[in-house]
Design goal:
By secondary structure, the chain is α+β, with helices and mostly antiparallel strands. The protein has 17 helices and 24 strands. The longest helix is centred in the middle third of the chain and has 20 residues. The structure holds zinc ion.
């Protein structure tokens, strides 16, 4: 473990970043460690120290002294040689360890002047819509290509190497032709510690890995399905029934190696999704789950108290002490191999979650991501010992406070459509938030009679809760576009319908975002996802589109609470989906959208969910 040394290296970088705009001593050492025709060493994400430097922010250089700056001239000469030697189309200064806002980008639109220098660059304007650029790659990330989310054009400002201030619009995002604008965006990201793998519009898993994951999800035979129904519901479906369920998508299958294989939870899903199927069985199981949700609601609605904000009510606080454990069996790791794990850890930037406190962890050395990433984690490492399983654990406590907004008492102001918040949370985020023809036409038809944004929320929420019953979901990393999947199969789990809700709200120009973690209700601890919607002058309002689903069309009281409220039994871990980890993962994630179970990898590969176990235990819980 070298975390101490690492910390001191990082500190010295950060120190110079704040107090100096000329090259630091360490940077000058790098600049002059070879003659001016020699290339630099390009930092690699596969190296631990390199990977952390690649995640740091760079500083502007002194714009007045560009023309006469000999250090800069020497640096740019070597940086160009590094670019030529690598065969890349762009390179940023931090990729060679110099944390300055400098990069080179290939001018595909000006063939006569192939490589341009950008000093202190800025993206001053871009459209809201994005494109999915194919096969992005990076000199710092060996052997990986992936499709990244980019703007089709950008207005930029930068100094060239003669010190002239340039303002221009860069276009071009086609892999087949000019993609100058994408190169600029990719290099610009490096200056902020962002890599293309943070902006993927499709899961970064290759087709073999995708096939493996699908095969694990689809592991039942037709016989297994029949047996499950016989032993759980005491009746035998006819072949005709099974065929019908298959055709309508209720009984989900894939053809794997020439055989029909059914989704591992396809059998129980039949009775969750299909009212006709429920007539064959004793539906008390489904009813009792609904009753549980209703009890929570009845209690909640009796416990709410007013706040200073009109229409906003709060619930009693609940403090919870949990232990989270990941166990990798001895069979999955080799003796002497380092196993790395990211365990979920509570956020501190959520007003409804307070008193976050660390209690203990299985390893003395650990790294807390804190709130700098969309997924908050505690990172630990262990070296495998022959014949012993590996266990990572962490204990922490937190206080959660639910809230509810009475939508009839709220009058939102008009949106400030130029604000960063508005632009970010009304934009598309491929592959799961896309304003497709399906989303556009369905949303338009659901909201056609609405007179306000509040009514839009009510219409969309009611439509989703009434039409898409809860069902156990395939692994998200295997689904190309989750809202489209919900529309196609007429079902969804909590995160799937949350993404549908967010897509529809954003399409209507209403800011909406993802939020997820765990639900910690007494007797009902589980992964859970929900959303938040923003009304100007009011703020972010929680929306849980999962609770109170089930019976078609009957819009009960529970839906009203969770349309603009959340209970006090939540552990908040993610404030967006498909975000970053700190420290960064080296291998493709097991879960490419969400983060609750954790992520595990060795120095050689990602360890997928079938290779380890996870457990969240409630040690104690107290309602204030
Ligand atoms: Zn790069």
């Amino acid at each position: 473990m070298k975390f101490k040394t690492l910390a001191s290296i990082l500190f010295s970088f950060q120190f110079t970043l704040i107090f100096s705009q000329s090259f630091t001593e360490r940077e000058l050492e790098i600049i002059y460690n070879g003659d001016e025709d020699s290339p630099f060493r390009v930092l690699q994400t596969t190296d631990k120290v390199d990977s952390l430097i690649l995640r740091m922010e760079s500083a502007d250089i002194d714009a007045d002294s560009i023309a006469g700056n000999e250090d800069l001239r020497y640096f740019l000469k070597r940086l160009k040689n590094t670019l030529y030697a690598s065969g890349g189309v762009g390179i940023a200064a931090p990729q060679v360890g110099v944390l300055k806002n400098i990069f080179l980008f290939m001018r595909m639109n000006h063939p006569e002047q192939l490589v341009e220098t950008a000093l202190n660059p800025k993206i001053v304007s871009h459209p809201i819509e994005t494109v999915c650029f194919e096969r992005d790659g990076c000199l710092s990330i060996p052997e990986l290509r992936g499709n990244s989310i980019r703007f089709p054009w950008i207005d930029v400002e930068y100094y060239d190497d003669s010190g002239n201030l340039i303002n221009e619009r860069l276009e071009g995002y086609s892999r087949m032709g000019d993609f100058t604008s994408v190169i600029f965006q990719h290099e610009y990201d490096h200056l902020n510690g962002i890599l293309f793998i943070d902006r993927l519009c499709q899961p970064l898993i290759n087709s073999d890995e995708l096939d493996r994951r699908v095969a694990l999800d689809f592991n039942k035979s037709r016989d297994d399905i029949v047996k499950w129904i016989q032993s759980n519901h005491n009746f035998t479906p006819t072949e005709k029934q099974l065929d019908e369920w298959e055709e309508s998508g209720i009984l989900e299958f894939r053809i794997i190696e020439g055989e029909k294989r059914y989704f591992r939870n396809a059998a129980p899903n039949i009775f969750r999704v299909n009212a006709d199927a429920r007539q064959f069985i004793n539906s008390s199981i489904i009813k009792s789950a609904e009753a549980g949700a209703k009890n929570i609601l009845d209690t909640h609605l009796n416990e709410i108290s007013e706040t200073d904000i009109k229409g906003k009510y709060v619930l009693p606080e609940v403090s919870t002490h949990v232990k989270y454990t990941i166990t990798v069996p001895e069979s999955e790791v080799n003796d002497g191999e380092t196993v790395k794990a990211w365990l979920p850890y509570p956020r501190m930037d959520i007003d409804r979650q307070t008193n976050v406190s660390f209690i203990n962890a299985s390893q003395d050395n650990y790294i807390l991501s804190e709130d700098q990433t969309e997924h908050t984690s505690i990172y630990m490492e262990q070296v495998a010992k022959k014949g012993e399983p590996i266990t990572f654990s962490v204990e922490f406590s937190f206080t959660s406070q639910g809230e509810w907004f009475d939508l009839s008492q709220i009058t939102p102001k008009p949106y400030n459509k130029d604000s960063e918040l508005y632009r970010k949370y009304t934009s598309q985020k491929p592959p799961h938030i896309v304003f497709s023809e399906n989303i556009r036409s369905l949303t338009d038809s659901i909201t056609r009679n609405d007179k306000s944004e509040i009514e839009n929320l009510q219409s969309i929420y009611s439509y989703i809760t009434s039409n898409f019953p809860w069902a156990s979901a395939l692994e998200y990393s295997t689904i190309p576009n989750i809202p489209e999947y919900v529309l196609q199969y007429n079902k969804g789990d909590c995160g799937q319908v949350a993404l549908l809700l967010i897509s529809m709200l954003r399409y209507k120009g209403i800011p909406a975002r993802w939020q997820s973690g765990w639900m910690t209700h007494p007797g009902e601890v589980n992964l859970h996802d929900w959303a938040e919607v923003y009304f100007e002058g009011v703020g972010w309002i929680p929306v849980d589109v999962s609770f109170g689903r089930g019976e078609p069309l009957n819009n009960r009281i529970g839906r009203k609470f969770f349309m603009s409220g959340i209970d006090s039994y939540r552990l908040y871990i993610n404030n967006d989906f498909s975000g970053k980890f700190y420290p960064a993962k080296q291998f493709p994630r097991s879960e490419t959208v969400d983060f609750q179970r954790g992520e595990v990898e060795t120095e050689k590969e990602n360890l997928y969910f079938n290779k380890w176990d996870y457990k969240l235990e409630i040690i104690s819980q107290k309602k204030e």
